[in-house]
Automatic annotation (TrEMBL):
<feature type="transmembrane region" description="Helical">
    <location>
        <begin position="319"/>
        <end position="342"/>
    </location>
</feature>
<feature type="transmembrane region" description="Helical">
    <location>
        <begin position="287"/>
        <end position="307"/>
    </location>
</feature>
<dbReference type="InterPro" id="IPR050833">
    <property type="entry name" value="Poly_Biosynth_Transport"/>
</dbReference>
<keyword id="KW-0812">Transmembrane</keyword>
<feature type="transmembrane region" description="Helical">
    <location>
        <begin position="80"/>
        <end position="103"/>
    </location>
</feature>
<feature type="transmembrane region" description="Helical">
    <location>
        <begin position="209"/>
        <end position="235"/>
    </location>
</feature>
<feature type="transmembrane region" description="Helical">
    <location>
        <begin position="167"/>
        <end position="188"/>
    </location>
</feature>
<feature type="transmembrane region" description="Helical">
    <location>
        <begin position="40"/>
        <end position="59"/>
    </location>
</feature>
<keyword id="KW-0472">Membrane</keyword>
<keyword id="KW-1133">Transmembrane helix</keyword>
<protein>
    <recommendedName>
        <fullName>Membrane protein involved in the export of O-antigen and teichoic acid</fullName>
    </recommendedName>
</protein>
<feature type="transmembrane region" description="Helical">
    <location>
        <begin position="381"/>
        <end position="404"/>
    </location>
</feature>
<keyword id="KW-1003">Cell membrane</keyword>
<dbReference type="GO" id="GO:0005886">
    <property type="term" value="C:plasma membrane"/>
</dbReference>
<feature type="transmembrane region" description="Helical">
    <location>
        <begin position="12"/>
        <end position="34"/>
    </location>
</feature>
<feature type="transmembrane region" description="Helical">
    <location>
        <begin position="354"/>
        <end position="375"/>
    </location>
</feature>
<feature type="transmembrane region" description="Helical">
    <location>
        <begin position="255"/>
        <end position="275"/>
    </location>
</feature>
């Protein structure tokens, strides 16, 4: 039990570190840049996170469910090498595409993107390094490499601020430099060689999971990027800055917590499902649901009363108007937390098609709610539209989990 407790604490601490750092990068932009300039930087980060999400869809999330069923030894190590080779190949292709986007796209949206392009491989591989340790239940080691990333990024940001060169592009580059350091430390410690892996073998070995899991991940990231694009297109870049500011403080910690739970619980759910332990899987789902419900209630209770005084003070009140969206965004965070236990169980049962169907419904309702809300009620309406989409997605996910667990019980 002490080993499990230690891994759990390390996993939560690791994801908290990642959440604080990611949030801090965006907050720094809103603190030192004008709202419009911050919007350009935040959109660049959204694009890079989109690419990072593609890496998770093709490799990271699949790894959590696929590799634990291999015994420790050469077979598992070979799977890791193939996974890292796949991620490296994807990163190289993505860097080329993003360079073209920067060269051909409007500067008012993608002007800072060129600063992040050289670091796309580092960002994807460092992220996969965390997934690799999580897959093996070595959360403390994941915490070490992420701490390396954070320390290096923080040092670079300190130099920028100290020399008066803080701007959107250089802030993005600091993220990339930190990720490079974290990835280098991982490969030095594990001796995994991404150049020795075989992407074709990874695609072959994971094809049963890869199709629907990957499609779900791609759809999720595309939905997030479309939200950023639609808010700027229907409203303004300043409105997007305000939305991202509140999401960064309120919603992103909840999303990062769900990432930590994925890393901790999906391998265990996969093992339970593989052993046919329906009771154990249901027990884990109920426990996590109760804990997450309590956390979600705390988020709403804290975020709503603090929104107005904090935003009236922050950046001289430049973002005071967006305090009105604290309620829908905090409710959305709580709804996401309620969804994660069902998602973990369905991933563990390898019911990837159900995940895709659920996310397709979520994407349609979320984007539809955003557009209708923005047209009718500007930023506040858009925030409520996003919350409504999250609510529909969670209800659908709960229903699918119940159906899948009952089918698993009947098949025993």
């Amino acid at each position: 039990m002490s080993g499990l407790r230690g891994r759990t604490l390390a996993g939560l601490a690791d994801q908290a570190l990642v959440a604080v750092t990611t949030a801090g990068t965006g907050l720094l932009g809103t603190a030192v840049l004008a709202p419009r300039e911050a919007g350009v930087m935040l959109y660049t980060i959204a694009i890079l996170v989109f690419v990072q999400g593609l890496g998770r869809a093709f490799v990271g999330d699949v790894m959590l469910a696929h590799v634990p069923r291999y015994a420790a030894g050469p077979a598992r190590r070979g799977q890791f090498a193939n996974a890292h080779a796949t991620s490296g190949t994807l990163a190289a292709a993505a860097a080329v595409v993003l360079l073209l986007v920067w060269a051909l796209g409007p500067r008012r949206y993608v002007g800072d993107l060129v600063w992040g392009v050289p670091f796309v491989p580092s960002i994807l591989l460092q992220d996969l390094a965390r997934y690799t340790y999580q897959t093996e239940g070595r959360q403390p080691r994941a915490l070490v490499i992420d701490a390396c990333w954070v320390v290096v990024q923080g040092a670079c940001l300190a130099v920028l601020l100290g020399t008066g060169h803080a701007a959107g592009g250089p802030i993005v580059a600091c993220w990339g430099i930190g990720a490079t350091a974290g990835a280098a430390l991982f490969y030095a410690r594990t001796r995994i060689n991404p150049l020795a892996g075989r992407p074709a073998r990874w695609l072959s070995d994971t094809r049963r999971l890869l199709g629907w899991f990957t499609a779900t991940g791609v759809l999720a990231q595309l939905t997030t990027l479309l939200i950023a694009s639609l808010v700027q297109g229907i409203l303004t870049q300043a409105a997007y800055s305000g939305l991202r500011l509140v999401q960064t403080v309120v919603l992103q910690p909840a999303q990062s917590f769900t990432m930590a739970l994925n890393g901790l619980l999906v391998p265990r759910a996969s093992a339970l499902a593989g052993a046919g332990d329906v009771a154990g899987l249901r027990r884990q789902t109920r426990t996590v649901l109760a804990v997450n419900a309590a956390i979600g209630a705390c988020i709403v209770a804290v975020a709503v009363p603090l929104a107005h005084p904090v935003l009236d003070w922050y950046h001289g009140g430049a973002y005071a108007a967006v305090a009105a969206i604290a309620l829908p965004v905090s409710v959305q965070a709580g709804v996401y937390l309620l969804q994660i236990p069902f998602t973990v169980a369905i991933r563990g049962m390898h019911r990837a098609r159900l995940l895709f169907a659920q996310y397709a419904i979520f994407a349609v309702t979320t984007l539809g709610g955003l557009v209708l809300g923005a047209v009718q009620g500007q930023l506040v309406g858009a925030a409520w539209g996003l919350m409504a989409g999250a609510g529909v997605g969670t209800l659908v996910q709960a229903g699918m989990y119940l159906a899948a667990s009952r089918a698993m019980a009947r098949a025993r």
